[in-house]
Every structure is written in C-alpha cells, then in structure tokens.
Specification:
The model has no long low-confidence stretch (mean pLDDT about 85). The protein has about 450 residues and is mainly alpha-helical. The chain has 17 helices and no strands. About 85% of the residues lie in helices and about 0% in strands.
C-alpha cells in the first residue's frame, strides 16, 4: 500500500507527464498540416523548414539554462511561466497572418516548452530517488515517444474536421485546452522546491552549442554558403571544447558536467538517443509529406497510415521492460535493428509497388516501426541515466534531452530540405529513409558495444 507521501509524489509525476504530453505532441502534430499551412500562408521552403525545426531548436537550447534557473529560483514558478508562454505563443501562431509571425511564435513557444520540460526533469529528480527515479524518468521517456507518434494522427483528424484552410490553425491550438488544465493542476500540486546556489551558467558554452546546431541546419535550409556553414560548425565545436576545458581548470561549472564527459557509457548512450530521436522525427515528417504531396492523399487518410505506429509504440513500450529484464541491454539493439529493417523495407516498397497498394503496405510498415521505437527509445534513455555518475545525476537528464532536441532540429531541417528540393516524391522518400536508416546503423554499432561492455562489467 502506498503512503501519503507516495501518493503525493505520483500526483506530482502525473502533472509532469501531462506537461510532457502537452509540449511534445505539439512538436509533431503540425507535420501533417504542412501542405495546407504552406498554401494558406504562401510560405516558401525556408519558411516551412523554420516552422518545423525552429521549435525543436529553441526547445533544446532552453533546457540547460532552464534547469539552472530552476535550481536557483525554484521550479514551480518557472514551470508555470514556461507553460503560460507556451500557451500564449500557441494562440499567436494559430492566429498568425504570415509565415514570419508563425516562425517567431514557434521559436518562442519552443523556448517555453524547454523551460517547462527542464522543470519536469528537475522535479522528477527532486521528488524521486533510486529505482523510483529511474521508473519515473522511464515513464516520461515513454510519454515523450508516444506523444510524438500520436501527433500526426491527431493533426490529420483536426485538418479533416476543420478543413485545409483552418485545420493547421486547429493543430496549433490543440495544446491549449490540455495546457490550461495542466497549468491549473500544476499551480495546485507542484511542490515549492528548495532553492540552491548553483554555479554560474556557462553562457558561452550554450552559445557555442546554439551556433553549432544552426550551422548544421542552415546548409539544408538555404542550400547556399555550405563551406562557410561547415567552417562555422567546426569553429563552434573547437570553441566549445576549449571553453569547456578552460572552465574546468578555473573551477567553474561548464555546460556539460565534467563527470558526464568522462563517462563513456553516458556519452555513447546519448549518441544513440540522438540518432533514435532524430531519425524518428525525420522519418515521420517525410512520411506525411510523401503521403500528401507525393500521393495526393487527404490529411485524414495520411493520419490513418501513421496511426499504427502510435498504437504499436504504446504496446511495445508496455512490454519493453519485460524484454529488458529477459535479454538486458540487447533489447535496445534489437529495437534499433528492427527500425533499420523497417526503414529500408519502406523505401523498397515505395520504389517498387504501385501507388494503389502503397498506403496499406506503408501502414503495415508503420506498425513495425512503432514497435521498434517502443522497444528501443525509453529503455535506452533509462540506461543512459543509470550510467550517469552520481555527482552529475541532477543535470544528466537535461543534457540528454537537450541532445535529443538538437538532433531533432538538425534532422528535421535536413530531411525537409532533401524532400522539398528533390525532383520526385518517391526519390525523396527513398533518400530520406536511407539516411535515417544510416543514422540508426551507426546507433546499432554503438548499442552492440555498450551491451558487450555491460556484459563484461556484470561478469567482472
């Protein structure tokens, strides 16, 4: 039987998970409305890419400073502020008359979402400990994955109900009623956390990460000045390394805790999470673009094709922990391998099958894709956090989430750039699927290395 303190803790978790659903569904719900939004706003390719990837960019960059502010000023107030900013910007974006307004609102909305989720991660770290903390963070990871998978299906239903002209606006407003309810419960149930006196935020390090992310995105968004952007990316990476070492020598807290940079399992597991999250977001985007722009399907029919992915992911996430208990870290490798096969099979089907049977075939593929993600995503995140050194446990979750959102921003801009500027829809789908499979291929190699390392540690 749970004690009163246990019940309070799990009520807090319910608020945190509700906030996760509200902000993370919003990351994917708009993808299926892109064609109608593009026509309604007379938006260009660059505008569309910024609307999609800008949210993930500011979301990721706000996580670490948001966590630092939560340590210094308490989490409850910042949670409420971030959610309020998120909701206001949702309304501004939904009522925007031009692409510039929507882009600006989405950028600020992403920052609000990052501020909220940094408090979610921090609150879970504050309220739960030991195995319960791992379980709670695992539930948050499952909610994040399922929310992303459900987004296109919900968006398709809204576009069908409201029509293509205003349906994309409804997609942007979807989070508002859920956000308002979450805001009310958060004001009542979130604890007034104790303030600490953290070190000064590594603003220069965060700026380097932002510059690196944007420089990786821009070649795909603009298609010009590629050499200059590559040079900027290299320079930003070098500056980040130099500044990190300098702050460590000076006894200051760098952007990434030194203990995390010394933990090979944490670094490698985070790289796997980046490949998984980035490829999942990119593959979902290119699928809905192909179904609507390439095959001329309605938003509702396209949503029906994506729905099996969400259903399978929920089911697979529910049994993933049993699989982990039975085969250990190999569960993540298995899910990643199935994901690679699924992406390649989808590409082959698009290249060979007649258009008439493609929707059904792709729906079956989506069923396997959702199962693969459910088996791999949340167990990998839980494993990463378990490998975080004790002295860095408080910031490990924030860094992991930031890395995933940065990967999403880059992958979304890259894949949308490939698709929007390709000659044929089929060729673009195949190219994007192969790229995503390549990302997961690299992740699979790392998964195998990690599984062997963990096996040797247990034996030793």
């Amino acid at each position: 039987m749970r004690t009163a303190d246990d019940r309070v803790s799990w009520r807090v978790l319910a608020v945190c998970l509700a906030a996760g659903v509200t902000t993370l569904v919003d990351q994917s719900v708009l993808t299926i409305a892109l064609p109608s939004m593009r026509d309604s706003l007379s938006a260009g390719d660059t505008d569309v890419q910024w609307i999609i990837s800008g949210y993930s960019l500011t979301f990721g960059l706000a996580l670490v400073p948001g966590g630092s502010l939560g340590d210094a000023r308490g989490r409850r107030g910042l949670f409420l502020l971030g959610l309020a900013v998120f909701l206001v910007c949702a309304v501004v974006a939904a009522t925007g008359a031009g692409a510039g307004t929507v882009i600006a609102a989405r950028l600020v909305q992403g920052a609000g979402a990052g501020l909220v989720n940094s408090q979610v991660i921090g609150t879970i770290q504050d309220v739960f400990h030991g195995v319960e903390r791992t379980r709670a963070l695992g539930m948050y990871a499952v909610v994040a994955g399922v929310s992303g998978a459900l987004g296109p299906a919900l968006g398709g239903a809204l576009v069908w109900l409201a029509g293509p002209t205003t349906g994309w606006r409804w997609c942007l407003l979807l989070s508002v009623p859920f956000g308002l309810v979450t805001l009310w419960f958060a004001a009542r149930r979130l604890p007034r956390s104790t303030r600490t006196t953290p070190g000064r935020l590594d603003g220069w390090g965060l700026l380097c990460v932002g510059a690196l992310t944007v420089s990786l995105m821009m070649p795909f968004i603009t298609g010009t000045h590629i050499a200059a952007w590559v040079a900027t990316a290299v320079g930003s990476t070098g500056a980040l390394v130099v500044l990190h070492r300098r702050r460590v020598r000076q006894g200051k807290a760098p952007l990434i805790h030194p203990a995390l940079t010394r933990s090979a399992p944490y670094i490698l597991g985070t790289a796997v999470a980046m490949a998984q999250f980035g490829s999942a977001m990119a593959a979902g985007l290119v699928l809905v673009l192909f179904l609507q722009s390439g095959l001329g399907m309605s938003a509702l029919t396209a949503a029906a094709v994506t729905l099996p992915s969400a259903v399978a992911m929920v089911a697979a996430s529910a049994i993933a922990w049993r699989v982990v208990r039975r085969i250990g870290a190999h569960a993540v490798s298995l899910g990643t391998a199935v994901g690679i096969v699924t992406l390649l099979v989808g590409a082959i089907l698009v290249a060979t099958l007649p258009v008439a049977v493609l929707p059904v075939a792709l729906a079956v593929v989506q069923l396997a894709w959702g199962a693969a993600n459910g088996l791999a995503l949340s167990p990998n995140q839980a494993r990463v956090l378990q490998h975080a050194p004790a002295e860095a446990a408080g910031v490990a979750g924030g860094i992991l989430q930031m890395a995933q959102q940065v990967a999403a921003a880059v992958c979304l801009s890259a894949v949308s750039g490939v698709y929007l500027r390709s000659g044929t829809a089929e060729g673009a789908f195949v190219a994007a699927s192969v790229v995503c499979a390549g990302l997961l291929g690299g992740a699979l190699v790392v998964c195998v290395v990690l599984a062997r390392w963990e096996g040797r540690v247990r034996v030793g």
